[in-house]
Design a protein that fits this description.
By secondary structure, this protein is of the alpha/beta class. The protein has 12 helices and 10 strands. 32% of the residues lie in helices and 13% in strands. The protein is globular, with a radius of gyration of 19 Å. The structure holds iron/sulfur cluster. The site of iron/sulfur cluster (SF4) has 13 residues, from helix 8 and helix 11.
């Protein structure tokens, strides 16, 4: 069945993406980890039966969001394939973001695909092992990530590569872009640091440098075979609009061919941002507007994720960009951008405050 396009009115009723942190356990010690992941599962992790009940509840949204099974390392969770299968049985599209460790085998991805996963998200923070492994705190992590890309290609699973931009790799954007072209990824999602978890120890780039990175990303978006998007930097959409592009539609080459193997899937429709089209459930059932916005708005199973998304005061405030403060509240781009609500909260304590890292003039 084909659904009508997602519209602004949908923001009040159902998220587009539902991130479920199935565990905080992970064998890596990444420098910018949101979850400050640990080697073993937390004692309050949702039980297998509660995790299945959560997925069944997500299926009650009138328009079912895509579930992204994240962590920690979701492959550390013994019942992961049951959770994926449950999502598929309820008509929910799902994606998986594994850590690049020995648990990420070809067989694990084959099982994930058989259970119903339709895409993989993979972190790659540098164009080579020297840079990437320093981020990840684990020698061999880059080689493993490249291996995972090969597994995914062999299994015909589209891959979204996630790259965190910090002071460590801001000069290497072009090199990373070229490497990803060779690896034939579907989507490149560039994440701009939010100082939470272990990310507080990393150095953010300056607002002016955001613009320089946006310029590079837009150039690659128009010339590479993969699609490009940003995470926690929605002002990239403003950059694209001001440079003749349409951030809400799949861009096209001059000959009319869609740019990016990911096509329209890679584009965040409308102004999707933290709590507005996005919802996050932690390993213990705590419900947040986003993984980088750690304000607890409820706790599953005591609270319904459907009810929290529609009725919690913070979610309701985030749904409407007219509630944003400072320059974001009056900016003509607030409905397609709106700034990172997570970064606003991390740096000011107010999730509705102006995006601290926006250098655009009003
Ligand atoms: S002022 Fe806010 S809404 Fe406008 S472009 Fe900057 S971050 Fe986006």
């Amino acid at each position: 069945m084909r659904f009508a396009p997602y519209t602004e009115a949908d923001f009040d009723l159902h998220p587009l993406m539902f991130y479920y942190e199935v565990t905080r356990a992970c064998d890596l010690v990444c420098k910018h980890c949101r979850a400050s992941a640990q080697e073993d599962p937390a004692p309050d992790e949702l039980s297998p039966s509660d995790a299945l009940a959560l997925i069944r509840q997500v299926a009650r949204f009138d328009r079912k969001p895509t579930i992204c099974f994240t962590g920690g390392d979701p492959l550390k969770r013994a019942d992961l394939f049951d959770l994926i299968a449950c999502a598929a049985e309820h008509g929910i599209t799902s994606a998986l973001t594994p850590s690049a460790t020995p648990l990420a085998t070809f067989d694990a991805f084959r099982r994930a695909k058989e259970a119903g996963v339709s895409a993989i998200g993979l972190s790659v923070d540098g164009p080579n092992a020297q840079v990437h492994d320093a981020f990840r705190g684990f020698d061999g992590s880059f080689a493993k990530a490249m291996e995972i890309l090969d597994y995914a290609r062999d299994l015909n699973l589209p891959v979204q590569v996630n790259t965190s931009v910090t002071r460590r790799n801001v000069e290497l954007i072009d090199e990373i872009a070229e490497m990803l072209e060779l690896k034939r990824v579907a989507v490149w999602s560039v994440f701009f640091l939010v100082p939470v978890g272990r990310g507080v120890e990393e150095v953010r780039i300056t607002p002016r440098e955001y613009i320089e990175v946006f310029e590079k990303l837009w150039r690659h978006a128009q010339t590479k075979s993969y699609a490009v998007k940003t995470t926690e930097a929605p002002h990239y959409r403003r950059y694209v609009l001001e440079h003749g592009g349409n951030p809400l539609a799949a861009p096209r080459h001059a000959d009319g061919e869609a740019v990016g193997r990911g096509g329209g899937r890679a584009r965040a429709p409308l102004g999707v941002t933290d709590g507005r089209g996005i919802m996050f459930c932690g390993h213990n059932g705590e419900i947040y507007p986003a993984g980088f916005l750690p304000i607890v708005c409820g706790r599953f199973p005591r609270d319904s994720v459907v009810d929290v998304y529609r009725n919690h005061p913070l979610f309701k405030a985030l749904h409407n960009p007219d509630n944003y403060k400072g320059i974001c509240g009056t900016c003509e781009y607030r409905r397609v951008c709106g700034g990172s609500r997570s970064r606003a909260y991390a740096l000011t304590g107010d999730p509705l405050a102006a995006e601290p890292d926006c250098a655009f003039e009003q």
